[in-house]
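# step 3/5: fold
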Amino acid sequence: MSKPVDIDPILRNTLRYTLSAKEYKTLHEYLISRSPRAVRRKAPRPPKYDSIVQSKNEFNVAAIRASLRVFIATQTGLTIWELITSSLLAKGGRPKKKPRTSIFKSPKFRLSLSLSLILLLHRLLYRFFSRLRVNLLTKDAAPFRRRNPRISKSLTSNLAPAIGASLAGFALGVYPADQLRVTISIYAATRAAEFTYNTLEKDGWFSNKPSWVGSWMLMPLATGQLLHAFVFDRDCFPRAYGDFALNHTPNYVQRRPESYPPKLSWPSQDTIVDSLAEISRLNWPPFTSPILFPNNPSPLPSTLNPIAPITSPAHPSITSLSCALLHPTSPSCLRTYLTFYLRAFPPMAKFFALIFSLLSLPRYKSFLASPIHELNSLAKRTLRMSAFLTGAIGTAWGSICFFAHFLPRTFLPQARWFWGGFAGACGEEEGWWKGFRGGDVWVFVLGLGVLNAVYEVDREAVRGGGVRMGVGWLRGEELFAKRDETQESDEKKEG
């Protein structure tokens, strides 16, 4: 190893936390060596760069470098996404200007800071508990193990580094407590539960289950839960998901007509959904058309008067009040359902084509190597996701008409949305259990701990190459591997 080169400490640290020696060697080989002579003359050779950035603690340097990259990548990605959503996807005019806030209070800054801190702390804690466990297992630590048997047993467990590193999840609390933080926590917890199930299944815990029982059963249960929460307890429902569903429902949620007098009120999207919940509570009353019965003083129940601008001019042949609210101009529920697919699928496909195209940018090398295959794969993912979400949203709305026509009015008036949905979505609303401040962060830490433990016990149970590589990268395993290879080469030289 070459001797360190005398250089300004600030410049040395800047280089050290920007590019590793290996990365600079690759950059020099493919870019700098092919640059003009003036650039090549000023750029240091890889051996000299290695002597400049070498550190006594390469692990910590690499952890900080990775953390800074996560911060910059997240901040840049969020800025680009905000530009896309506010400008390219804005409907009907100029994008709305958001009020200016301090950079330290900006959600983008705090999310970037939170994710980068999670990575940094996770790597440092995993290495700390790994080295502590090794030191406690030595002969010199025998007196400590005898004096503190319980603590020693915990710290010398195979799972101690994995569980200890999960404490980094508390850095999620840097980000404000909103729906995104809850979504991240739920995702971590559900993936941890999935991988735990994989481990137990591999160990034979579910060897006697029926062949038709599988993970596919979670989808209808989750969809029913979401639909019930969306109608009856929207404060428990992810706001972004609800807005996405409503914005991609062109013919079931009636928009204010352009020719409608501006002085008259028109029910909002939330009012329409709340009215559907009230219709359920009233046992799905029939529709009395004001066109056929103009002298009827109260064509609507008093609690549903806000939707009168939609239902009053509804087609006289409609018999169900819910149908008059959802598709007032068309008496056919089936035609409305089919029309929904024709109108909703193209915008949905455009949206996911943009999203998947952006997600495919890091894989540009595969695209250059086989563009036809990559384009075909991109088209398949776009069509599959667009068809799935269009079908899920359309079926959710279409089921309202279906049940209104084929079920008695008093048969499961509210539970027909989903008989079990209220148990998960409304438990806190009904006071069955109470949340506490920062509970979503604790859920994330618990999920991260279980995920780490499962990865430690059986890596194959963490299915999905991306997730498995992500956990390994979160631990900094490539740095451990590099250190082990260095130690082996040094031992061979000494031998």
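# step 4/5: annotate
The chain has a mean pLDDT of 78.
# step 5/5: archive (pending)
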